[in-house]
Amino acid sequence: MQRLFPSTFTAIHCRTQEMKNEICTTNISNEQQKKKPSHLIQFSPEKSISEFSLFHNFIFYKNKNILNEQKGYLVRTKNYTENEGGAICGISSLDSFFLTEH
């Protein structure tokens, strides 16, 4: 059977996590409080894959294709265990255009 996904490779991934502010019982000046880091940054080697995606604009009105244009592409590296369809997916609605028949 043919493989659907590319082979994995090791890449360094960076994750940030917001740190919760802890209540301190000691007096800390405002200047010291401002310098306290608010995010935890972690780097880790993980199995990854590269992905190439295209994105389009589609507009249909009464089963008629009005617009179907390729708008761009996206190349990214992600963890191979992530199960997502891509950065841009789904259906959106137009709320500022009026589509009429001529």
Can you lay out the helices and strands and say which pair or pack?
Elements: E1 9-18, H1 30-35, E2 39-61, E3 64-79
Antiparallel strand pairs: 1-2, 2-3
- Give the uncertain stretches in residue-range form: 88-99
Could you give the order of strands across the largest sheet?
A: 1-2-3
**Average pLDDT for all residues:** 69
Number of helices: 1
Detailed description of the structure:
The chain has 102 residues and is mainly beta. The protein is built from one helix and three strands; from the N terminus they run βαββ. Strands 1-2-3 form a three-stranded antiparallel β-sheet, with no helix packed on it. Strand 2 and strand 3 form a beta hairpin. The longest helix has 6 residues. It starts with 8 loop residues before the first strand and ends in a 23-residue tail after the last strand. About 12% of the residues have low confidence. InterPro entries: Glutathione_synthase (IPR005615). GO terms for molecular function: ATP binding; glutathione binding; glutathione synthase activity.
